[in-house]
Structure formats: structure tokens, C-alpha cells
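Input for the complex:
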Amino acid sequence: MNAPAGHFARVAFGSLLIAGLPCALAASAARAPAATPAAKTAAATPVASPAAAPPCEACHGAHGEGMAAAQVPRIAGQSADYLKKQLDDYAAGTRDNPIMANFAKALSEQQRAEFAARYAAMSAPYLAQATPPMSVHLARGHQLAFQGDEAKRVQACNGCHGPDGVGVPHAAPYLAGQSAEFLSSALKAFKDGTRKNDAGELMRSVAERLDDADIAAVTGYFASVDLSTH
Amino acid sequence: MVQRLKEVDVVVIGVGMVGSIVAKELAAAGYKVVGLERGQTRFTVPEFQSPAIHDELRFDIRKALMQDNTREPVTFRNQGSQVALPVRRWESFLPGTGLGGSMVHWNGQTYRFQANDFQLATRTRERYGKGFLDPDVTIQDWGVTYDDLEPHYDRFEYLLGTSGKAGNIKGQIQAGGDPHESPRSREYPTPPQKEHFQGAMFRKAASSLGYHPFPQPSSNLSQPYTNPEGMKLNACVFCGFCERYACEHYAKSVPQTMILPVLLANPNFELRTGCQVQRINLDSTKKHATGVTYIDAVGREFEQPASLVITSTFAINNIRMLLLSGIGKPYDPATGQGVVGRNYAYQTMSTVASFFDEDVIINPFMASGASGTLINDFAGDNFDHSGLGFIGGAFIGAVNTNGRPIQYHPVPPGTPNWGKGWKQAVVKHYNHTIMFSLHGSSVSQRRNYCDLDPTYKDAWGQPVLRITFDFPPNDIKMAAHVTAKAVEIGKAMGAKQVAGNPRKGPYTVTQYQTTHNTGGTVMGDSPKTSVVNRYLQSWDVPNVFVIGASNYPQNASWNPTGTLGALTYWAIDALKNKYLKNPGRLVSA
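Predicted:
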């Protein structure tokens, strides 16, 4: 059963890529509850098995580098446990994104584990930000990352996400080198409650106490950290 | 040259758990309150953040959060015939210092004592007869009942957001909770912590033997919680660095996370840190306090006049404050006369280690300070002591709080103490061992007490506190009895080897046991046998209140913090609604 389904998926995904990708990404970025036509196309799309060229590439890039402008995260080298949990949550409906949900639902648990492992094993070159943050924002971002803010009752990001946001396998994804655009969208999703697949509401507890300036600062800071050089 | 400052309504000595709560309530009621804290100001950010806070060498071994015993030690001896020596490195117990006090480094285990505990002398006599106890045992009733304290336990738990499962709500036994507990008015504020694997194994084994396992009440929270003060706490992440550490995540209920921001925002309150109180000053009648004298961090001496003085330091320091101030008659073990320093007690801690094969994976490092599973079937007076020759008991639980690499390395009896054999055993057993904690009660006894040391002085030239303590035979018998029961649970878990380690004498101050020092300024109904009355007011100097675990006439089978929180709100109620409306004795002697 797997092979024909996979074959079909490749074809179908190819047409999606040509016809509607920018729209689909926009829908993802805005987390619009009403599916756009492109998202509906995706909804009707079965998905490849890991043996086939993964449909992930279309958005997450050939090397898992993501697509910052469309708020698609970098997933190369992200821990397999984290990626697997996200795929499971998309499949179970506990993380909401119409495109990812449809891909994830079409995968068996085993396939989700294989996709997660594939991207966990990848590396991708660091992508510098199109507009580097201003030093004052970097300083505030660094403060939140390393120290936190007592007045806002926000602890240091690195306390869970590891030294300089490198991530802690099993527990927390890396932030370093992730795009500011994706990180902002994720923090805002936690803040407005549209994303709630964080154990113990750990991210929601933090995000609700950050204002837009803090989010811009801390995400700009982590996007500026090039782990390939240190 | 002593600088005399402007008089205030209230001076609070020690801004820890008790001091923060009392100061908050009195400042909110409109009184001018000064809080004097000997240690430093510190907050979750930046002081408690990782990676610095996860430094096992600094905090576990070198005790960075504890009272500075190079400047302010205690001395210790087992018997009155010995010469006490200074404790230069904390081991047996760990009094904290700094804003937030010892609570900053607690594990969050938040129990209530049972109704029986508050009337221990009466109930023991009623159930077992007059001559049941060793005549040296000096247990007594508290002067308050569980029913008096219940609303205050409730308020304290809702301040903390304690995660747990009620076992008895208004007399109705609740499935999944502790059926032995005294009735509570409502459920815990948040649901229990997640159960770790060893807790699950313990639950199964204890149930199979007919016991009643329940989740450990935890003030490392299971979910986000906003307390009645408006403080929002986060969920615990099971990092395994609770006790001896501060929490970086706003997930452990400590003054900084649950009340200090409210207190510090009140203009009626002034915090002064780095201030070492030397004494409470009395007028010529010795029956009225005029304020306190303290020395600040650069050595300047101040007199702070106040209408009301509340000493809310760590238990043993409350005793010393009264002795240094000449408040109350010091206890003399030779005659049994005097009260200050009398009925010093502790906690009788035993352990049971269950060793498993290597296919049983425990992962002890994934823990919070209070995510265990336990039974109260052998705690307090929950079993018949007839013919046993002792009173009291212990909770038994798989309550592992951490697997930190320097301190946690369980090995079976017979393992070499060092070298290759020891290292191999640590590797073999680290991840395949379940440790039970047996948290035992401690009776007060005629020969255990505290006084001022005749030889040693602190950095300010004042005599240090001398502790004279050994385990009473009652508690040694109790430890042996309960340990045997716990070994049976270990065997029922299917362990390959079970090693019981009942507490034995003599007490040693160089081995960590627990920071549950109690007594010395005990509460009660009579000035002959207590330092403070049932409202924690000094019998001798009515405008001095003493609040701490030093008020306990003896110690029960559980961690003392929950009861101290209840006593704190109980005393606040008396202060606000009785004393401050009409200052004077609340109970006639």
C-alpha cells in the first residue's frame, strides 16, 4: 500500500508546489483559521512515506533550513524527540496548522519518527538575517536569553533551551540560528493561546508576559547566533 | 556610636517565609513595618538563574545559600557532660540566610500535621495509659487544636498553590488521597504532581500490602497558578535541583515567587538587608520591648525603636535571639526549670534502599523536590502502639528528589567506601535503585536543649547557640519498627536486594539528615512549660511575638513547613484582630 500512495503524493505535492505554495505559506504564517484555497488543496493531499522525497522540502528547504520570510522554521538538526512530538501533535490536533496537520495525519507513527530522525540528522548552513537587529535590541534579547526579567517574572530562555539556546534533546528545541520570523510567530501563537502543546503551559507562561518589543528583541537575538562558528 | 532611628510600629527580625507573610499582612493593615534581614537581597532573576544555580559543588557541597558559619556558627554536643564544639561546615541541617530565608532552598513538601499531634500528651495518655512513656520524655500539648489551625493551613496552601490530592474533605474520605489525614475544608489548589516511575512502583507494592499510597503534596507546582496575592507561579520542569538550590522557573513557592513583590510594593514596609540584629531591647521593667539593636553590613550600630517586635528567624536562631535579649528564663536540664531552649527536637530519618536488576530503569535525575508517592499507615498514631514501647512514627515514601552526580550514589551494603570497587558499584546501581525516605517523628526529652555557649562567640562578639542533642530511645525504637515495615514494601516491589537503614544513635552533626530543627521557644498553655502562649506571644514580654518551628513542643512525622505556615496565619489573625486593637497579654498567665 505504501508505494502507490507515495507515488501519488509526489505528483500531487508537485502540483501544489507550483500552483499554490506562496498562498499556503501565507495561510500558515497567519495561522488563519479559515483554510485558503491552497490549504484546501493541501488538505486533499496524501503524503509521501519517508522512503520517497519528503514533501517537507517544499517549505522547510532541501537542507531543512526553513523559509524565514514565510515563518517556516528551520528544522535541520532539531532534536528528533522534539520534531516527532510536533508531528504527533499535528496529527492529534493538539498543535494547530492546517498544512502540517494534513501531512502529519497521513503518516503512521513510525513514519513520523522516521521523518523526525531524518531532519534531526541534517545540518544546514547558518542563514544571516536580511535585516540585522540593532545593537540595543540585541542587548535586550541577550538579557532575556541569559538572565530573564524579574519585573516581568520571566526566567532566562537558556535555562531550558540550553547554553546560548542550543537546545536540550528530549526537552526543548534549539533557538539559536532559528529565524526571527518563525520564533516571533511561535511566541505570539503561545501568547494568544493558538498554540498550546507545551507541557505544563511552560511556554505560554513565559510568552504571555512578553510584549512585542521583547519578542522582537529576543527572537532577533537568537536569530543572530551562528552556532557554526562557536 | 549608636544611631537611634525613628520609631516604627513593627520590627520583623528575619525576612524569610514567616517574616514576609507577617510583614505583608501588617503593612497592608496600615502599620509601619521594618524588616531586618541579615543576608542579601536576592530574586529569581538574576540570582536564581541557571547555569549558575545548578552548581552542585557550590550549593550542595559548599552550602552557598546557608547561614555563614564562619561568622555565626552553632556549637554542638551529644551530652551535657561533653564540651561542645563549633559546627564549621553545615551537614546535618542547613539553615539558610538571605531574603526569603531557608524556604528558598526547600523541597516544597507541604504537609499538615494530624489532629492527634496537637494534643499529643493528652491523647497518648488516653490511649496507652499514664506510665507508657519513658519518664524523660517531655512531650506536651500545643495549646491549639487542628480545628483552630485548619483555616490557616488552608490559607497557607492556597498562598503556595500546593499540588496534591485531598484524602478527607470535611470528613468524607476521598479516593486517591491520604485517608489518615485530618479533615480539610476543600481540595488542594492544584492537582498532584506527575508520579515518577519509582513512585508508581511504590504505589503498586504498598497497595498490594493493604496500605494507602497517595501523592506527596508539592509546592513545586503541577500547573500554572495565580495565588490570592495575585502572584502567578509556573509549572515545575523536574530539573532535579530543589533542595539546597533556588528555583529558576518561578515554579517553587518561596517568598520571592508568592508574596515578596506585594510586600515590597507597599510603602508601609521597608526592607533592610545586611542587618544583624544583636538583641531585642527591653525597658527597665524587663517586661516591655522598646525595639531592637542591629549592626549593618559596614559595621554601623543602630537602635530601631518599635511598638511591637516579631522574631521570625530560623528555629534555632529564634531561641538564640531570646537568650541574647534576656527574654524568658533559660532552661536548666539539671533542675528542669526554665523554658527558653527547652524541648529542642529534630526529625528521625531512616532510609531503605531497594536494588534492582539493570533492566529496571529508574532515571532518578528526573525529579522535583516533592513528586513522590508515600503512605501514612505508619506515621503518627495511625497504628496501634500498644506493647511497642514507643510513640510516633514515620511516613514511608519513594520520594526521591534528585539524582545529582556528586551526592547521589546508592550502593548496597558491603560495597567498598572508595576506589575501583566503589566506582563500579555506583555505575551499576545509580539508575537501578529506589530509595525510600522514612520521615520520623521526634519526641522532646529532658536532656535535649539549647543554650548560649560559654566559650564561642560570633563575629559580633555575642555568644553562639549551643545545641545538646541525642536521639531519645523512643525514637530509635520507632525507627527500627517502621524500617522493618518499609523493607517489606521494598521486597514487594520485587527488588533483588533490600537494605534497611534505621536511624541509630548517637546523633551525628556531620551527616546530612534534615533541616527540621524544632522547639526551644515552645508554645503552650502554661508559662512554666512554654515560652509563648497559644498566639505565639511571649509570656514575659507581651509586645514580642516569636514565630517559627521553634514553637513546636515536639516534632511530628512530617515536614514542618505546612504547620509553620498555618501557625503564621494563626498568629497574624491574633495580631490583627486582638493584639493590635488592644495591646497587652492575650492570655493571662
